[in-house]
Amino acid sequence: MLCAMLLAGCSQQQEHTIPATTDAKCVGAAKSGMVWIPGGSFVMGENPRYREEGPPKTVDVDGFWMDAHEVTNAQFEAFVDATGYKTLAERNPPKVPGAPPEMMAPGSAVFNVPSRDDPRWWRWVVGAEWRHPSGPDEDIQGKDQVPVVQIAFDDALAYAKWAGKELPSEEQWEYAARGGQAVLAEPRDENGKPSANYYQGAFPAKDLAEDGFDTRAPAGCFKPNGHGLYDMLGNVWEWTTADGARADAGEGVKVIKGGSFLCAANYCARYRPAARQFQERGLGTNHIGFRLVDNNRPAPKSRED
């Protein structure tokens, strides 16, 4: 149930804001469009670090096109401007017996740094939605290239239909995230510098922000993987079409992949390709976004296409 989710958490941390000037530093966002992922076989899953990650199995994947980076605020705004679409967080929520009064108003889940006075990990914030990811006090001005968040599964489906694309299967997502490269226990380069936007430091005491960010980074601030895809690990969780299972969920559950800026090595290291988490399809948060695939676009004729 949603109430249970608001009392628990996995890989989330404190929400801060990104300076508007940060966009200029992230050249990867300039590469919009899609990347061709050649088909192949791979071992999906791992000997589980977390139970839901295994057992490993060999999977064949046909070639497909995938967004080079997560759908951004600017891209989602274009969709809303064209269609007038309202996300689930902007609508009146369903009535949940025993829910607190604030959950009867439009809003969404925002991570709350637990304290002695307020031990909750999650709280319902009235007015939290994609334009105001952590509530009315935060907006997205100057953050066009930052991944859109507070997106429920059905919101992502609506955008995909408008764009003429699809959400990826879990097999497609994990195959693309691996990028034909060795999987590291923690995403750091040969010099030990973080190579993705995730949480450094002892969770939940202090995010050292060694990667340069303590919240969502604009798309493309880190080097792409072997397939030319940006931010497949860290930054924001991403929806897939796979069904999940969670005993405390009061509605259908989907698999999200990739971890987020809120994943910490000492607590919830789900920034690995095999990692997966189960999320209620009707609930976005301030660290869940998405990217799309195109299964109908023909394969390129050559590397230069």
Notable characteristics:
about 300 residues; alpha+beta; 3-stranded antiparallel beta sheet; 4-stranded mixed beta sheet; 4 helices; paralog of FGE (formylglycine-generating enzyme); single chain; about 10% helix
Describe what you observe in this structure.
The chain has helices at 2-5, 73-83, 153-163, 170-178; strands at residues 34-37, 40-44, 57-61, 64-67, 107-111, 122-126, 237-243, 253-257, 276-280, 288-289, 293-294. The radius of gyration is 18 Å and the shape is globular. The chain is built from 4 helices and 11 strands. The longest helix has 11 residues, at 73-83. The protein has a domain at 23-81 and 144-294: Alpha-Beta Complex (paralog of FGE (formylglycine-generating enzyme)). The relative contact order is 0.23. The model is unreliable at 1-24 (pLDDT under 50). It is of the alpha+beta class. The strands form 4 sheets. A 4-stranded mixed sheet has the order 9-8-7-10. Strands 1-4-11 form a 3-stranded antiparallel sheet, with no helix packed on it. It is 11% helix and 16% strand.
Short précis:
This protein has 305 residues and is an alpha+beta fold.
Write the layout of secondary structure elements.
Blueprint: H1 2-5, E1 34-37, E2 40-44, E3 57-61, E4 64-67, H2 73-83, E5 107-111, E6 122-126, H3 153-163, H4 170-178, E7 237-243, E8 253-257, E9 276-280, E10 288-289, E11 293-294
Parallel strand pairs: 7-10
Antiparallel strand pairs: 1-4, 2-3, 4-11, 5-6, 7-8, 8-9
- Unreliable spans are 1-24
Strand order of the largest sheet: 9-8-7-10
Do you know the CATH topology of the domain at 23-81 and 144-294?
paralog of FGE (formylglycine-generating enzyme)
What is the number of strand segments? 11
CATH superfamily annotation of the domain at 23-81 and 144-294: paralog of FGE (formylglycine-generating enzyme)
Query: Strand content of the residues, in percent?
Result: 15-25%
Shape: globular
Structure classification: alpha+beta
Fraction of residues in helices? 10-25%
